[in-house]
Amino acid sequence: MKKILSCMIAVGLMGCPKANDKKAEKKPEEAAKKAAPATQAASKPAPAPGTNDIPAPADVAAAPSDAEKRPSGLASKVIKAGTGQEKPGPTDIVEVHYTGWTTDGKMFDSSVKRGRPATFPLNRVIPGWTEGVGLMVVGEKRRLWIPGKMAYGDKPRRPGAPAGTLVFDVELLNIKKAPPPPKPIPAPADVAAAPKGAQKTASGLSYKVLKKGDGKTKPGATSVVRVHYTGWTTDGKMFDSSVQRGQPSTFPLNRVIPGWTEGVQLMSVGEKTRFWIPGKMAYGEKPKRPGAPAGTLVFDVELIEILPAPGGASQAK
User: Fold this and answer.
1) Which residues are catalytic, by number?
2) pLDDT over 90 (residue 24)
3) Which class in CATH covers the domain with range 1-20+182-317?
4) Which end of the chain is more exposed for a tag (fewer CB within 10 A), N or C?
């Protein structure tokens, strides 16, 4: 839920990954960095690359005719049937053993070789894993042929990432179901358009005060503010809310969308205001950033506090 505000704040104040998951998860693309034991004695030389690598399967070069092929381009084949009944969802946390090869038979990563399973949420890995492991049940072992477009690409941008089609043998050991997402906050009755009683600025921003503040203390264009907010598209779909998270957001007003920079400066501390922000003052009618909401956006914003500037100087008007 924090990803929209991180889009609003150019410096990325709000990160998307879940902090509690970072310590546990070891994604396939990251795990190879952990291959050498941390406690390895200095006097013992590290094994040369490729030493004791797990041999590639005979069909590593291409998926055989009996492999299941998906519309996405993913191919897979069950090597060992599982005993479970449920399949993991995209936000579930899975525990797996896996080995990965390029189609020329070179192994590039293996939790099996390390002797340590990997744990991660399925929506935090390459798309081929999200889809492929989502087909499995606990106890199952499956071979995946993942095209480059669902892995790191044919010309990876990340240094050291394997290119092109990748082949993985994956064994699903356990599934930890993700908690159900919280219910969205209902949109206001006037979400579709600003009502007649709303005020409108020269820029096209419309607003309506829902609760008066102290009427005195207002932020400036570069002030750092603490707010609670909820945002909807004009069809009533909530896309972000600090209220739902139960944690106010803090950011400088010159690091957010123009509609926020202008609108929040109109508010005094303690005030709650509804804004109708046209697309040109938000993310545009056709946002370039994947996942950003398009067109006019509606926000309920409560200005909780104007924080001191670095050095203790006041930022209030």
Assistant:
1) 98, 108-109, 126, 152, 168
2) no
3) alpha beta
4) C
Whether 103 contacts 60, CB under 8 Å:
yes
Domain 1-20+182-317 and domain 61-176, same fold? Reply is: yes
Per-residue model confidence (pLDDT) at position 50: 59
Which pair of structure tokens corresponds to residue 90?
A: 């995209």
Q: Which fold has domain 61-176?
A: Chitinase A; domain 3 (3.10.50)
User: Do the Cβ atoms of 210 and 274 come closer than 8 Å?
Assistant: yes
- The pLDDT, as a whole number, for residue 51 is 65
**What pLDDT score was predicted for residue 88?**
96
Question: Tokens at residue 158, please?
Answer: 């990340």
- Residue pair 229/301 in contact by the 8 Å Cβ criterion: yes
Kindly give, in sequence order, each residue whose CB lies less than 8 Å from that of residue 184, ignoring residues fewer than 6 positions away. Answer: 237, 238, 241, 244
Model's pTM, two decimal places? 0.53
Residue range 34-65, pLDDT digits in tens: 433 333 333 344 344 556 899 999 999 999 99
The residue-averaged pLDDT of 226-250 equals 96
**What residues contact residue 114 under an 8 Å CB cut-off, 6+ apart?**
31, 34, 35
